[in-house]
Amino acid sequence: MSDLERFNEIVDELWELVFGTVRRPEVKSNDFDGIIKEVMEKEHRRRTEDRRTVDRGTDDRRSKPKRARGKKGRYKGDDLTTKDFNEAWVGGKAPKKRKKKNGKK
């Protein structure tokens, strides 16, 4: 008997004395495989339910607003002659301005 096997045996005996249960209960391989398969299927179902069917890159509500860029890669400015479309932003709509918090009390 190797030192490791003897050590594990002593730990198992102490475990039973302290906790009153078997440290490593024997599990039939068929039962164990079934449990693993069941857990993996539940996890797979949970992950697939969380996914959105909408492409996140095209969803306006969830994606961050992006500035439009010109041919040289610089930011474009808004053309003030077109009131209903903002050329400075991809999609033509500028994001809403955030309210400033009042720092003074």
Report on this structure.
With 105 residues, this protein is mainly α. It is built from two helices and no strands. It is elongated.
Provide a short characterization of the protein structure:
The protein has 105 residues and is mostly helical. It has helices spanning 3-19, 29-50.
Structural key phrases:
single chain; 105 residues; mainly alpha; 2 helices; elongated
> Could you give a short account of the major beta sheet?
none
The proportion of residues in beta strands is under 5%
Number of strands: 0
| Average pLDDT | 79
Distance between the termini: 76 Å
- Name the shape in a single word: elongated
What string gives the helices and strands in order? HH
| Individual helix count | 2
Radius of gyration, CA atoms, in whole angstroms: 31 Å
Structural class: mainly alpha
Helix content: 25-40%
* Parts with pLDDT < 50 across at least 5 consecutive residues: none
